[in-house]
Specification:
about 160 residues; two-stranded antiparallel ribbon; single chain; about 15% strand; alpha+beta; about 45% helix
Length: about 160
C-alpha cells in the first residue's frame, strides 16, 4: 500500500493514522470488534501491572482476564461480567444457548380472567384464551366509560 497508511488488525482495512484512531475508538462506527482487538494489549498490560482482576486498579484501567465460554480463548476486558470473547460467532452461539434456556422455563400460569391454569406461549401471557382476553378488555372498557360518566356528571 501507499506510505503513511496503517492496516487495522481487526478488519484488515487500510487507514491513515488519524483515520485509524477514529476507526478504533468511535463506538458508533460499525467496527466494535476492531476496537476490542486493538485494546487487548493495553488491557493485558493493565492486568499484569496490577496483579490480576482489578486489585487496587483505578476504575478507568480496570482489566479482567476471562476465558470465552464458547471457544475457550483467553481474552481481556474492562467489563467484569463479560463471559464471551468478541468474536461474532461466539456471541451468536452464546445468545442462542441463552434463548433455549429461557424458552425451556415452565410457563404454567393462572388465567387473570377465569383462574384456570394454562401453559403460556409467551413469558408475559396472562389469559388462557382469546375469549378471556376479550372479556377482560370489555370489562375494563365498560369501567372506563362508567368512570368518565361519573366524573362528568352524566350518569
Amino acid at each position: 500500500m501507499s506510505e503513511g497508511l496503517v492496516q487495522c488488525v481487526g478488519c484488515q482495512k487500510w487507514f491513515t493514522a488519524a483515520q485509524l484512531s477514529t476507526h478504533l475508538w468511535n463506538r458508533w462506527d460499525k467496527s466494535p470488534r476492531c476496537h476490542r482487538i486493538a485494546v487487548q494489549p493495553t488491557l493485558k498490560r493493565a492486568w499484569e501491572e496490577y496483579g490480576g482482576d482489578s486489585n487496587g486498579n483505578p476504575r478507568f484501567l480496570a482489566s479482567y482476564r476471562r476465558t470465552c465460554r464458547v471457544c475457550g480463548q483467553v481474552f481481556f476486558t474492562s467489563h467484569p461480567s463479560a463471559l464471551d470473547c468478541w468474536e461474532r460467532a461466539c456471541q451468536i452461539t452464546s445468545n442462542r444457548k441463552a434463548a433455549k434456556v429461557r424458552s425451556a422455563r415452565p410457563r404454567a400460569k393462572a388465567c387473570e380472567c377465569c383462574g384456570q391454569w394454562f401453559t403460556a406461549r409467551r413469558s408475559d401471557g396472562k389469559f388462557c384464551s382469546n375469549a378471556c382476553r376479550q372479556k377482560t378488555h370489555r370489562k375494563s372498557a365498560a369501567l372506563q366509560i362508567k368512570h368518565s360518566e361519573e366524573i362528568s356528571g352524566i350518569g
